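Consider the following assembly input.
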Amino acid sequence: MKINLRVSLKIPDAEAATVKNTLRRRMGYGAVLEDLRRERLWSIEVDDSVLDPESLARRLARELVNENKESYKATVDSIDFEEGYVPVKVGLRIEDGEAISAQKRLRNRLGFDMVRSVERSSIWKLSLRADDPERTAGEIAERLLINPHKDFYEIMR
Amino acid sequence: MKIAVIQFPGTNCEHETLVAARSSGLSGELFRWNRPAEELSAFDGYIIPGGFSYQDRLRAGAIASKEPVMDALREEAERGKPIIGICNGFQILTESGLLPGLGGINVALASNVMVSKGEIVRRGFYCAWTTLRTETPARRCSGSFILNKGDLVSMPLAHAEGNLVTADEDLMERLNEEDQIVFRYCDEGGRVEREFPVNVNGSLESIAGICNPEGNVLGLMPHPERSSFAWQLPPTDSAKSAGDMTAPGPGRRIFESMKRYIEVMR
Amino acid sequence: MRIIGLKDHEVDAALRSAGLGLSVSEARSIAESLGRDPTIPELFSYDTMWSEHCSYKSSRATLNEFLHTEGPNVVQGPEEDAGIVAIDDEWCVVIAHESHNHPSQILPNEGAATGIGGIVRDVNCMGAKVVATADPLRFGDPYGKDKNHVRWVAEGVVDGIWQYGNALGVPIIAGDVVFDDSFDSNCLVNVVAVGVVKRGEIIKSRAPAGAGEKGYDVIVVGKPTDSSGFGGVTFASEELREEDEEANRGAIQIPDPFLKNVLFKANEALFQLTRQEGIVIGFKDLGGGGFTCASSEMGASAGYGMDLDLDLLHKASEDLPPEVVACAETQERFMLICPPELTPRALKIYNEDWDLPNVYEGARASVVGKVTTDGRYVTRYRGEVTCNVSIQHLTGGIRYDREERPRVVELEEPEISAPEDLTEILLKILGSPNVSSREHIYRYYDTEVQGNTVIRPGEADAGLIAPVRDEKFGIALSVDSNPFYGRISPYWAGATAVAEAMRNVAAVGAYPATLTDCLNFGNPEKPEAFWEFRECVRGLADAAKALWLKGYEETPVPIVSGNVSFYNESPDGAVDPSPIIACVGLIDDVRDAVTMELKRAGDSVYLIGPRFDELGGSEYYRTVHGVTGKNVPIVRFELERNMIYAVIDSIAKKLVISAHDISNGGLGATAAEMALAGRSDLGLELDLDAAGSDLPADRLVFSESSGFLLECREGGEEELEELLKGYGLDIMKIGIVSSSPELVMTCKGRTVLLMDLSTAKKGWTAGLSEAMR
């Protein structure tokens, strides 16, 4: 069973603003890219025997989400995205040291024995004025959002 | 011989880099990223210094590599002029495809992962003195022009993303064969080890610096400008208090190399 | 808002529901001074300016009573954002020291980063180049009842500091970290910034002469104003309660080192222009209290008024109420006051050359108003006058005489029989969170950026930089304060913090030139807390007076900057009294400075400073025996002064090639650290009988009485002994540097300690990373 925590910033996201500005001013997407937002995604594989995944999700969020500056949505197994943008997931294709550390911390120090693995990625939510938004989103991912030698991307629908 | 030290928003090593370049006999000035790019052609060489251009947003070097000034630099590189990227400068050069310069983007400088006995013992930013072993013969590359194969050079490093990785299985073989691996991390005696603390960030084959096939573009993670004067050395180095305030440190040889390269190539 | 004619409880209810921290009597005095009911924005302006943070209303009288802020080398005392002392005829060092405790407890990363961001602005706005920072940190017990939260705070704070400082490009060259359960719910994050400026190029944080008569422009530079940090200074002036956390979050500021980096470069371009043209400007950072604080203080300190239009200020959104625009603590902003003929060029530097609008969405420089001569502080918003008060009354603040009462604590000395062998005890102390190597933290810090660093963290008791190329002088920096001493005696904690910070810079060969104090205490409305505060200030002032500025008899080392942080208190109690002292030391030639690691086998090692039976608060009592004790180390002022001067002189004469002061963990830890720093290939053989004391071996080795261990240059013994005698110091030639990597101590012919350095190094380097994992 997989618990997904979608985490977004309550404070202004300077990284998203910079990426948006670069795509629009420097890479020719001024007329195409209407908006761009970012979320972080924690995907936590836990034992199937867990009885109350919603409450576990809340306990995990307490450790992985800083609610003073972030908010989150938790789902079990599937993720549903709202209409109006193309979600592009970007993650590491090489070993993710931060995810490994998070997993160790959850299991060893904080006692979450049911955690099997932890994955970490970013979701870039692109609002595009284009004939084929998914193709354009793929192009943006390849031209800017990833370095293919360490990252992968996936259009989430 | 006049060089330009490029300033992006967030660059923070430009002043000491210019001082170090001048100490080797080069003249130069700072060049703000939004100056007219055509003014770049008046210079004989270029240094992209360290720092956090655009705060390493997205990933280190990614945003700066899209600035128009990088297109102009690419043209100057094709003319054979030397370009040295230090730390964030190296990251910008890899993101713009200038390094290793095989067409497209060939490597990534990923987040540091310190591995010891197979375990991750630390991650993230790390600042320490390190020793580099020169892997190429003299004259192979602009920034190591006067360094011989096997020469050791000590200098500090300070970065969070210096772990060189590639998804291209043949790349390492090619870089080795073409003498594009210029520096490797080693211990004080010159021994290269796969693991932390000698391989300080987890880089493939302990790579600290690479050049393009032509040899005029060099990128390295450690900071030669912080090791260009003897007094900057660690206290365990007996050269630290020798000579006056202008006495050279080992890092100055990178800038002296650049100067010699410009002299020879002109 | 109606105040006149209402009953006290009605006024109180109105103030609270508006979110104001003002007391009823304060609100009444405002209404009385205005002769009418104040507007909401006016009340928020007063709330800000009369907060503890901005007005020092509880502390001012005590600070004025005890602290010496003047001296022959002082160029500017504590009246502005940072203090300034002379290095030589041309160069000056600028220093500022603040706390950012409350925000760091709630949002460790952003809180600590904002701390660094604020303190570097204070130094930069004096026209200085910021060349170093230091970060004294206090966290809770990493093995105690709140260990997970304590570690979360500690990790977040360290991340925030490196993420901000490294990106900005200012090296962190000093600091200290102490874990103590009194900080479980109240961490302390102090920040120190140091800059250099030429004496003739200092910029004042006030409207220049003539600004009112000639109608100088008031310009705000930087990030667009938003609501972040609204109520921040009031928040810093209250106790932390968990149920308020949600409300307190709004008080957190959001830092941006990237924008700051660009702003600093644009500022430098502006400063250069004004120097070239001989134009005098006023320049100040927008910190605590935001726009209101900066603009009113810049006008008031020059005797002028201000007329400001909040509509002209660039904002992140247009729906902010006037009191939020005026009092929010949005980060990365400055205020410039300049003659109108400079304005177009100043705006071009920020808005075009350094392209602020594209570097950060909505950032820019905007003209927001004029300096006036009428002494009124006027703000307008959407066509209405939102504030019209006497600028002197607004900035004059108020004073409180707080009650003090000695805190009564039952303390006693433990009965301990001296153990036969001290090796295991020293190993335990070396691995403890408070004594172990700080490497785990300082490797996150860029200690090398700017290329000026001569001595780095871990190499000596103080960091050292050569901040100006083509000049040989160096600036040494250290920080100190021991909360365990504060628990026993606030007075001696204050005195010891000063003495140790000075010893630290002396140990590299620099003379102490100035001090700053950041005073972290509980709620001053409680008489015991206020007594602790006064005792600490008295102690640190006595030490600064008695340890004279070198070269000037009977002249105190001046305290040119500082900060008071009260209300470091939660329902669990207050923090241990923490007068955190920073010391700036100066040395003529950085190549004469020395570090702590042993240099050469066969060299003689000298102990300075007799050992006393004063282990109260010591690492030995606490870590090994689990008790605090009573006999806290005291500062013997004349002895201390002679020790510090002797060490500086012996380093200058090149007689001493390694030096390390004795502090936490006593002589034992000091000796071990000298052997463990550097390559760890040389050992020490010490004969404790040379200390000339009849204390049992454990007390000799672990007493934290002040002193130094010095490695003497080969052949320099006679001259060193003469020098020490000249200062009236006992000659205690306590041992030699050995070529075998072990630490050996003998006492009365018996080996009491034999420690292998490679074993010791493992525990010593692991202690801190384990505590923070």
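Chain C is about 35% helix and 25% strand. Ask yourself how this observation constrains the way the partners meet.
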